[in-house]
Amino acid sequence: MFRIIFKFREAANSNLKEDMRQEMTNVMEAIKKRSSTRGYMEAPLTEMETNQLIHAGLQAPTAANKQEIHFTILQDSNPILKELEEEKNRLRGITAPEHNFYYEAPVVVILSADSTFRWGTLDAGIAVENMALAAEELGLGSLIIGCIYDALMGEKKDYFANALRFPDNYEYKIAIAFGHKAVSKEPHTYNADAQITYL
User: What beta strand segments (E) does 15-100 contain?
Assistant: First the structure.
């Protein structure tokens, strides 16, 4: 009897280890394959796809487990995106851009955090990386966005915070766009020798 139980547990442990190896392979593949997507199909994301991406962000670690990151989700038809584009272009002196700041992606997520919390910017960056890897795993494209910083933190900061329904005392940290890839790009290369120091 004990021998049967032992063998059952041994088999269960073996299956668990195999599942964990497979999950690790999936994660590493997503990391290797991910690259910024600057061209999207018109097809919208499903509600399930959007929810999976948001929950990937919510599952990201935060300093002291504060979980302070707020996610504002916009469809590409939302007029606030056009206002952000216009303000970004005005501040940069751009008159006829080939694409808008989110490259016509069907979904844009803007992350904000408590302006008084020291680690909010870092936490937001961790969250968007989680979301970008989740998008890659789902076969979707993503683009992490910082170029609207001046528009969201400038003279219209309060207006945009209101329009985007940021919680009180929250401010923009980073954004990310999602959609079905219309273009593909090879992941960037890197120089490990120059970027790593072992002590």
Answer: 70-75
- 199, 52 in Cβ contact below 8 A? no
Four-residue CA torsion sign, 100, 103, 106, 107: negative
- pLDDT tens per residue, range 93-120: 999 999 999 999 999 999 999 999 999 9
Sign of CA dihedral 18, 129, 76, 113: positive
Secondary structure of residue 190 in the 3-state scheme: coil
- Burial of residue 48 (number of CB atoms within 10 Å: 0-12, 13-18, 19+): exposed
Looking at this protein, which amino acid is placed at residue 57? G
Three-state SS at 21:
helix
Cite the beta strand spans of the chain per DSSP E.
70-75, 107-114, 141-145, 170-179
CB 183 within 8 A of CB 38: yes
pLDDT tens per residue across span 157-168: 999 999 999 999
Residue with tokens 């985007």: 164
Residue 131's nearest CA partner among 149, 121, 144 is: 144
- Global confidence as pTM: 0.88
Contact indicator for 126, 66 with CB cutoff of 8 Å: no
Q: How far apart are CA 133 and CA 29, in angstroms?
A: 10
Question: DSSP 3-state assignment of 84?
Answer: helix
The residue-averaged pLDDT of 177-192 equals 95
